[in-house]
């Protein structure tokens, strides 16, 4: 098998035998003609299977070392398909610090169908032991977590879960298969918000699921088709076009993020930087053991909450916006944006408070990004000092 950089660049490039098109075509069709009764080209109706989507699904399954891939209309749609594996009365163990939308889907939607969740530090085996019940069916891990960048040892949790008969589900959005492959570490299901790094250009909304094992893959194929939140052919094509440059982008994202995180660590206005690439990160060793590198997002806590509003007003190159993983740098204020649906007591208990900013570092020149941040910090400091003396 070729190296992952090669496989990424070649997605769909050798799949079109008729014309030899190097870019796989967008098959904008929902119905497929049957040669005769009892015969099919393999395609019948586009919700079940669609040619452009199939190339994407096979590519992600192979990249994540799984058996089957499923492309969904968003990351949330992918999570909904996965949660539909469970039934009334089932219980899930979920990472304590996690994407706000996942929490909302569990607490405001799945809970109405009798599926409950407990939120724990998934790196704490004792906590897992005390949380597991007879009706627990799965552990859902985000690693690193968004926004606090806590890292879970996937191999450790997956082997614990296997002994208990639980599925291990990993949200691999932040690292992508270029940097981390949870199935190789024992996970059963990987989920992606492909809207983020896989797409990479802040222009396509998509979700991907990869599963290991025949039975589980068949169950997911049934649910994917039954629920119907599938990805359309245009968006499947856009996502594959983005994925071709994933390796290059992730390398630059990591380089830029590491440079900026080190710079901010020294800054007098900053209380703390949360990034697993930094040696003082509590799970630095685990991160290095299980992944090839680091994501391009990190978060940091200002010493003074009053600096947040002026910093967000003064950044010019870096956009104040709610997403991550694209080529353009974005700054997010989790307490009011991505994590607003998580109750304040829970947010504060894990540390997502009003002094925390999340930075999705793009692929611009790192010096330009540092200069933009520093002018925003200086302007914020000047406003606060001006306010104090007035
Ligand atoms: C964005 C995100 C999701 C949700 O994905 P959408 O594509 O926005 O529906 C799920 N998990 C993580 C970690 C995310 O960042």
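Q: What amino acid sequence fits the structure above?
A:
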């Amino acid at each position: 098998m070729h190296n992952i950089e090669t496989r990424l660049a070649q997605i769909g490039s050798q799949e079109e035998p008729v014309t030899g098109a190097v870019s796989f075509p967008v098959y904008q069709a929902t119905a497929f003609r049957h040669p005769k009764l009892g015969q099919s080209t393999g395609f019948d109706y586009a919700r079940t299977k669609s040619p452009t989507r199939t190339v994407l699904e096979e590519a992600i399954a192979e990249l994540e070392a799984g058996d089957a891939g499923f492309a969904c209309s968003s990351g949330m749609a992918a999570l909904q398909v996965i949660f539909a594996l469970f039934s009334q009365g089932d219980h899930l163990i979920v990472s304590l610090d996690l994407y706000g939308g996942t929490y909302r889907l569990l607490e405001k939607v799945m809970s109405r169908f009798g599926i409950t969740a407990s939120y724990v530090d998934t790196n704490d085996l004792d906590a897992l032991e005390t949380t597991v019940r007879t009706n627990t069916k799965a552990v859902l891990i985000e690693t690193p977590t968004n926004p606090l960048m806590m890292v879970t040892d996937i191999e450790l949790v997956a082997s614990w879960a296997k002994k208990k008969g639980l599925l291990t589900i990993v949200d691999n959005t932040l690292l992508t298969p270029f940097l981390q492959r949870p199935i190789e570490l024992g996970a059963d299901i990987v989920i992606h918000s492909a809207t983020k790094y896989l797409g990479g250009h802040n222009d396509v909304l998509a979700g991907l699921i990869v599963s290991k094992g025949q039975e589980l893959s068949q169950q997911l194929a049934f649910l994917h088709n039954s629920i119907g939140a599938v990805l359309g052919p245009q968006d499947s094509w856009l996502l594959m076009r983005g994925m071709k440059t994933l390796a290059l982008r992730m390398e630059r994202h990591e380089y830029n993020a590491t440079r900026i995180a080190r710079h901010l660590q020294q800054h007098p206005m900053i209380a703390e930087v949360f990034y697993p690439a930094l040696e003082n990160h509590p799970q630095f060793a685990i991160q290095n053991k299980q992944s090839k590198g680091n994501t391009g997002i990190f978060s940091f806590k200002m010493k003074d909450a009053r600096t947040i509003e002026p910093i967000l007003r003064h950044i010019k190159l870096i956009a104040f916006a709610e997403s991550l993983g694209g080529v353009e740098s974005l700054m997010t204020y989790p307490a009011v944006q991505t994590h607003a649906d998580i109750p304040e007591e829970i947010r504060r208990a894990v540390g997502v408070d009003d002094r925390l900013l999340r930075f999705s570092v793009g692929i611009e020149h790192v010096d330009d990004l540092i200069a933009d941040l520093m002018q925003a910090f200086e302007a914020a400091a000047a406003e606060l000092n001006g306010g104090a003396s007035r």
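Q: And what stands out in the fold?
A: The mean pLDDT is 95.
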